[in-house]
Design brief:
Elements: H1 2-92, H2 95-106, H3 127-148, E1 153-157, E2 163-166, H4 175-184, E3 191-192, E4 196-198, E5 201-210, E6 224-231, H5 233-240, E7 250-258, E8 261-266, E9 272-275, E10 289-292, E11 300-309, E12 313-320, H6 321-324, H7 326-357, H8 360-389, E13 393-398, E14 403-406, H9 408-414, H10 418-421, H11 426-430, H12 432-448, E15 452-460, E16 463-475, E17 481-490, H13 492-519, H14 521-540, H15 545-556, H16 567-570, H17 578-584, H18 587-595, H19 604-610, H20 631-646, H21 657-666, H22 673-683, H23 686-696
Antiparallel strand pairs: 1-2, 1-6, 3-5, 4-5, 5-6, 7-8, 7-12, 8-9, 10-11, 11-12, 13-14, 13-17, 15-16, 16-17
Helix pairs in contact: 1-7, 2-3, 13-14, 14-15, 14-20, 14-22, 15-19, 15-20, 18-19, 19-20, 20-21, 21-22
């Protein structure tokens, strides 16, 4: 009974202690609820005030960055335009041109003064004869300058608004050019015309006053006006393209105003020039503001313009609003998260205090912590084992470039102990040259805040290795970048296999070309000449490395299909019969049969199969037309026809190269005009003239 009584007493004692603790616990819970409620209220109000203040700073930084980007791009383009202007000064300051323009101006800009005299005219009037005799020479000089200076056309105007001297092959001026010439004539400053489209893409006109011979700009009025047209599609595309340091959402645009309103210059788009509508809260549409994107997508962007040509051309910098305010959104999340954490911490403190009042939970809590520590220790051991088994090199560098940690694979790969590497930098491990390149990618990773992947060729343990390196910034507990995590993957075997494959393909091409030469030396020589012109045209048209490599292989193999055609047909001096023509036109199919089992890793077969297709759809074997034909096939086809025309045959002499180009020009509905233009430039180059001379000997 005592035992039972004791148990009953103890039970009641516990109940009494619990009952007496209830008021204290209740007061504690009420106090905790009030404090937590106050903290919740403060966690909403205080972050809101801080975020509003931070927003002004973020927008100010966005404005500074966009203005710097817009101004920087504007200065780059202006520098390029200044170089164009400086290059053109050599022409208008030439005393020969200035004297010629002065004599035409004395004649009143009348073309009747330039024609030769008739027998019944006054023989003492020598002005017209002099100008007429000068005209062919002046036109040749102007044409040479235009070609050598990468201008497309050149015109010399008189005060009547008529171009009395043009570069060779120049098209008649349009109404817009004539109006600008009339409006500009007599001014002493150099003027750029608006960006416009022509058959070659985007171009600009440059108007330069021509002064009398041996005079300065402030002494006499201009006696002529030189108009030079130059292409801008490629350069503007480069200037407006995204840079490595460009942030996500940032876009650089170019805007001009003409009598048609505002227009956007889009060199990388098929339209080239788009009509746009600029909206702004202020009167100036180019001041920094939040406005709809000029792309017409309806997205809100922060944008600003930088003047390029006074009141006519601007560089316009946009950044997506969401991307611009990304740091603000992250700060907002962090602020509210921090406030929430404070509330949780305070709640946890009160909860821990309450738990402290209930001592029966202490043992369970201690047990939980022990189990947690055991699990953490087990996970650490597991991670150490995984890290030790990874074959890739893993290293952690501090911001000063010294390594703070490397995994076993890293230490083994560079032939050092892990403890020895800690404290060393890339120069001590890989050499100064490699370290200099790696430091650039380190800075990019820190600046961009994202993953950066590069490739490096290094020597480890006296052996060449090719490493693919991925880098990400390491963010410490203070939310600041405190280092860089680098992962090195050895791709040496992959690189070596690719080299072997490329070498095998080149050896195979050489062998096939040698077989063609053994069968018919003429076909081999023709292939080499086509290859030369095709490669030069491809490079002049700024084709990609893959396209240039495709031209190199396909041009050398373009005639291999003719091995299956009897030589009596290939060298037949008489007109071929329809059956013989059909047999020759099967040589692309023969080529496909010979090469279809070879993996070139390039569109070589497609190029050879399409080299006889024509833009008007009248080629063979499939009758493709327009953009259905690869650019490499269009180049190869034009160069093949050109070489065939200038090469002598047993039954005819080779044509003059200029005549062969004229034939291509006359068939510009069949051949790409851009290819013909580039081919003409190659033919007129020093290398082209040497090769043509060797053919005609």
């Amino acid at each position: 009974m005592k035992k039972n009584g004791k148990e009953k007493f103890e039970f009641h004692a516990i109940n009494n202690m619990a009952s007496s603790a209830k008021p204290a616990n209740k007061r504690t819970m009420v106090t905790a609820a009030l404090v937590i409620g106050a903290l919740v209220l403060l966690s909403i109000i205080v972050p809101g005030l801080i975020i509003e203040d931070r927003k002004d700073d973020v927008i100010a930084k966005v404005q500074d960055r966009q203005e710097i980007l817009a101004t920087g791009r504007s200065e780059l383009i202006q520098t390029w335009l200044d170089s164009i202007r400086a290059q053109s000064d050599r022409l208008v300051t030439n005393e020969l041109f200035r004297l010629f323009a002065y004599e035409v101006n004395l004649a009143g800009g009348d073309f009747t003064q330039i024609v030769p005299q008739t027998p019944d005219e006054d023989p003492d009037s020598s002005l017209g004869v002099s100008l007429f005799e000068q005209l062919p020479f002046m036109e040749r000089v102007l044409t040479d300058f235009t070609i050598n200076s990468d201008f497309t056309t050149s015109y010399l105007f008189g005060k009547t608004g008529i171009a009395y001297l043009t570069s060779g092959g120049a098209a008649p001026i349009n109404l817009q050019q004539k109006a600008l010439a009339l409006a500009t004539f007599g001014r002493k400053e150099i003027t750029f015309g608006p960006v416009r489209k022509d058959s070659t893409g985007l171009v600009m006109d440059l108007f330069l006053p021509v002064l009398p011979a041996q005079s300065e700009a402030d002494e006499e009025d201009p006696v002529g006006l030189m108009l030079l047209t130059f292409p801008v599609t490629t350069k503007f595309g480069e200037f407006l393209s995204q840079r490595d340091l460009s942030e996500t959402g940032e876009i650089t645009r170019m805007v001009q105003i003409t009598n048609m309103g505002y227009q956007e210059i889009v060199p990388n788009d098929s339209e080239l020039i788009k009509k746009i509508k600029l909206e702004s809260e202020g009167s100036d549409p180019f001041v920094f503001a939040l406005r709809p994107s000029i792309s017409g997508s309806g997205e809100q962007v922060y944008s600003v313009g930088a003047k390029l040509l006074a009141d006519r051309l601007w560089v316009f910098q946009e950044v997506d609003r969401a991307q611009a305010e990304k740091s603000l959104a992250e700060f907002k999340n962090i602020a509210f998260l921090f406030a929430g954490l404070i509330v949780l911490i305070v709640a946890a403190v009160f909860l821990a205090f309450w738990w402290r009042l209930n001592s029966e939970h202490n043992g369970a809590l201690a047990k939980q912590f022990k189990e947690l520590a055991t699990r953490i220790h087990a996970q650490k051991q597991l991670l150490d084992k995984i890290n030790g088994s990874i074959a890739d090199f893993i290293g952690l560098k501090a911001v000063d470039g010294s390594y703070r940690y490397v995994n076993p694979a890293f230490a083994k790969g560079v032939g050092r102990d892990e403890d020895e590497i800690v404290g060393m930098d890339d120069a001590a491990i890989f050499g100064t040259g490699t370290a200099a390149r790696m430091s650039i990618s380190d800075q990019r990773a820190i600046t961009d805040g994202g993953a950066i992947t590069t490739s490096e060729r290094v020597f480890l343990n006296n052996k060449e290795h090719h490493l693919q390196i991925s880098k990400v910034p390491f963010v410490g507990e203070d939310n600041q970048v405190s280092g860089i995590v680098s992962v090195f993957r050895d791709v040496t075997e992959i690189v070596e296999e690719q080299r072997k494959k490329e070498k095998a393909v080149k050896q195979m091409v050489v062998a096939l070309v040698r077989a063609v030469e053994l069968r018919d030396p003429y076909l081999g020589g023709h292939s080499r000449r086509v290859s030369f012109f095709a490669l030069m045209v491809g490079k002049r048209m700024n084709l990609s490395e893959v396209e240039v490599a495709t031209l190199e292989v396909s041009s050398n193999l373009s005639q291999i299909g003719k091995l299956a055609i009897p030589r009596r047909i290939l060298n037949k001096p008489e007109r071929l019969t329809p059956e013989e023509v059909a047999l020759i036109q099967k040589h692309p199919e023969n080529t496909q049969q010979l090469l279809r089992g070879i993996d070139f890793d390039l569109p070589v077969l497609e190029t050879i199969m399409q080299m006889h297709e024509r833009l008007d759809g009248k080629g063979y074997p499939k009758g493709l037309e327009g953009d259905e034909i690869l650019i490499t096939a269009r180049i190869l086809g034009a160069c093949d026809v050109f070489c065939a025309r200038i090469e002598p045959r047993s039954y005819r002499h080779g044509l003059d190269p200029q005549r062969a180009l004229e034939i291509l020009d006359d068939n510009n509905d069949r051949y790409d005009i851009n290819v013909i233009t580039a081919l003409r430039a190659v033919v007129n180059s020093v290398e082209g003239e040497k090769l043509i001379a060797s053919i005609q000997q």
